[in-house]
Each structure stands twice: as C-alpha cells, then as structure tokens.
Amino acid sequence: MTAQDRVAFVVIGRNEGERLGKCIDSLRRHTDRVVYVDSASTDGSPDLARTLGATALVLDETQLLSAARGRNAGFEEARKLCPHCEFVHFIDGDCILADGWLERAVAFMDSNPRVAIACGLRYEANPRASVYNQLIDQEWNTPVGRAEASGGDALVRVSAFAQVGGFNPALKAGEEPEMASRMRAAGWEIWRLDGPMTEHDARLLGFGQWWKRCLRGGFGYAQVWSATRRGRHPVFTRQLRSAFLWMIGVPLLVCAAAVLFRAPLVLVGIPIAYAVQIARIAARRHFSRTAWLSGAMLMLAKLPETIGALSFFLGTKPEQLADYRATAR
Question: Is pTM beyond 0.85 here?
C-alpha cells in the first residue's frame, strides 16, 4: 500500500479564491480523497472545490465558525470516505502541498509510532509583497525536531486524533497548540521535519488585516491559556506574559515612578524601553533593515494582542471577533 493510499486530506478555507483551486490541484495529484470545509465564503469556494473533484462541506453559520470546527467536520467526513486511512493531512486552503512531502512524512511516522503529528517547513509565496507577509514568513520559521505544536498544516495520525477527541471546537484560534498539549500529555510526540511542506499565500497587504489577525491571536492566547491553565504546562503563558508586560506593566511602572518621584521626565523611559527591546530583537537578526522593521512590528503587535487577550478576559465571545478573511480576496 502506497503512502497516498493511507492518507486523506482535509482543507479548510474562507474566501480563498483561486488559491483554493491551486491547493486542491496539488492534493489531487496524490489522491481523490480530498474534503473541503467552507466557513461562510462569498466567492463560490464550495462550488469550485466540487468542480475540482473534492467533497465540499459548508459549516452552519448559526454556530461558531472556526478552524477547529472545520477541521473536526472534515476529519469525520474523511473517515467516511476512507475508513481504512491511517493518516489525515490537514491543510489550509491558501497553501500548496510541496512535492515529495507526503511520502517523507508518512515514512517518518511509520518509523516513529509514537509520533502523532508530523509537519515540515511552511514558507510564504510572496514575502516581499508586504511587511506583513514578511512577518508571517518569519513566523513559520520554527526549529526542526521535536516540537510543542505544529500549526494548521500537518500530517496527523488518525488513532491519536481520535484518542484525544480532535480539536476543541470552542476555540477561535490556537486550536493546534491546545490539541497538541493534550496529545503530549497522553504520551504522543509532535515533530517538525527539515524540509518544505507547504507554500502559503497569505496576501496580507493592509494594516487593518494585520491588526485584526493580531487581535484574533491575542484572543486565542487568552482562550487557550484559560482552557489549559489547570494542566502541568499551560499553553501560551509566555506570549501572554510578554504582551501584558510590555503594554501594561512597563507603562504602569514608569508612570508610577514619575508620580512617586515627581519627575515627569521619567516618562521618556517608556519609549526608551521599547527602543531597547526593538534593538535586542534586531541584534538577534544581525541588525539588517528587515531586522529593525521586524523588531518594530513585533513590538507593535503586542498592542492588539493585549487588546484581544483582555477582550477575552472581559467576556467577549469568539463569534464577536472581526474576521480578517470575511471578504473575498
């Protein structure tokens, strides 16, 4: 039995346009077991998927639209299409599967029976199209080897997925690290392999899109941390601590010092602290122009992340979040 015979694909998307066609085409070269799950697209994505030979599902809009819910629905449908499949490969609708990846990932899983998830390197198709695309490209550049989480594109062992109950459908973001934490607690391993897996086409070209994405990220940090905080290793603790430190802790401490010592000039310590941190980030990337820009944007991102996290703690519902993919692109 070949690697292709043992795998079904689950694609999720919303208003991906022609990128969805490229994604499904890259999968259909391997198998006809492709399930596409749509979240309220307005660009005819489900019809396009069916035209290309995929099974298409459309999520009920009266319930929370989320990647977790879409992937769970796709997994169930894939199991109906392929009851004997040992693996399900999840992939986002704006990605293209790299040649040779599937065979390599299946071989790795066969050689390592305690591995629940194998992922590779995800890279941005057009990193120079915008500073936001550059940031996303850097975001995908994580260390190879044993990992804590995988991201949205990954080959998943069916038995491990079923054992932990799949993704938490209540999560708006951060569903992969949360599920991975449950898998690791159950004795499974997650690995990132050193080789290309998927080409991603973010098309994140505007500040508003980037801001909404960061808001969603911060909300996800808080929601996943809340869901895992009673475990041995709560997820996203470091990210929340960093956002709150820089956007709340540092300004409050400096303002308190200015009042205590009756020295308004102490307030210049706030921008100085931010500048020093940006320089530290740039230093890790050899002080290139891109490094300085990345440092500045990573610091700026902590503001919407903090707002998003606070909105969760203040009772905002996941369905109230604005989706940066709500319109066709």
Answer: yes
